[in-house]
Structures are given as structure tokens and as C-alpha cells.
Amino acid sequence: MRKKMVALSACMLLAGVATANAVEVKEQIVVSASPDVVWKVANEYCSIKTWGRVFSNCTQNMKDGVVWRFLTVKDGGGIVKEKLTDVSDTSYSYSIMEAPLPIEHHTGKIWVEPGSDASHTVVKWHVSFDVKAGNDKAKTTQAINDILVAGLGGIKEIAEKTH
């Protein structure tokens, strides 16, 4: 009985540590263009190299039925390896498998929704991840948030120019 209690306590402690490092970042932007126009900017999995602002290149391939993208971070910042996990007419979801940031268990989704009228669109980008133990949670969260804000700004800029 004592061994079971110790094991249960250890599991609860580990779950608490994982939860303490869990982060959700949710950003959105309103774009003065229709959802169709906006989604044409963002819908291609590697179009992030155009609007993402922090990436200098993107390559994409398929292996064992899974679509992978490899993002090159500008200024020698490393490579981000992601896999596509879901796609719809107005969204896609992905998971980061490797990154030069101290994160793990990352999932993300980007999508468009109609705005207040036919000429406006809301673009949403939500991510969740765990900050690896021993790393600064606030700095890591800010770095991820900055990527989302820059990317959404890039989508807005391109969509509004082509509108």
C-alpha cells in the first residue's frame, strides 16, 4: 500500500510540473479583406515563408503519409521541423517536433473566420506548448507570441494589398 501511495504521489508531482510549464498563446487580427482573399495568403503550408516574417525559407515534403515542413529561421536562428496534423477549407493544425526554442508538446492552429461584414476577416492563431524545465517561461512565451503577432501582421499586410 505504501509503494502505491509513493508511486501515486510521484505521478501527481510530475503531472503538476508538466502543468506548471504549460502555456497557451492566442492571437488574432482583423483584416480588411474577405475570408477567401485572406485564406489564399495563408492556406498553403509553406506560404509562411512569405508572411511569417521570421522565416527565410520553407521546404515541404511527405513521408509515410505525413506532410512535414522545415522552416529556416532568419539570421541563422536554426530550423523548425513541423508536421501537418489537420486541414480544413479555412484552417490547418500542426505540431512542432523540433525547434531552436526550449519547447515541447507544441500544437498550433491557424484559421480564418468571417468578420463583422463581408469585407472583413478575423485570422486566429492559437498554440499550446510546454516550456522545457529549467528555461524562462516568460521569455519563451514572449518569443512565441512575437512570432504569432509578426505572422498575423504579415498576413494582414499581404491580404490588404491584394484586396
User: What's the story with the biggest beta sheet?
Assistant: 7 strands, antiparallel
Name the shape in a single word. globular
- Ends distance: 68 Å
* Proportion of strand residues: 35-45%
**How many individual helices?**
4
Structural class designation: alpha+beta
* Rg: 18 Å
**Unreliable stretches:** 2-18
Average pLDDT confidence is 90
Helices and strands, in order, run as HEHHEEEEEEH
Strand order, sheet with most strands? 1-7-6-5-4-3-2
Number of strands: 7
Share of helix among residues? 25-40%
What do these coordinates show?
The structure is a single chain. The chain has 163 residues and is an alpha+beta fold. The chain has four helices and seven strands; from the N terminus they run H-E-H-H-E-E-E-E-E-E-H. A seven-stranded antiparallel β-sheet has the order 1-7-6-5-4-3-2. Strand 5 and strand 6 form a beta hairpin. Helix 2 crosses helix 4.
Nutshell version of this structure?
By secondary structure, the chain is of the alpha+beta class. It is built from four helices and seven strands.
Top keywords for this entry?
alpha+beta; disordered N terminus; seven-stranded antiparallel beta sheet; 4 helices; 163 residues
Helices, strands, pairings?
Layout: H1 2-20, E1 22-31, H2 35-42, H3 48-51, E2 55-63, E3 66-73, E4 78-87, E5 91-98, E6 103-114, E7 121-131, H4 137-162
Antiparallel strand pairs: 1-7, 2-3, 3-4, 4-5, 5-6, 6-7
Helix pairs in contact: 2-4
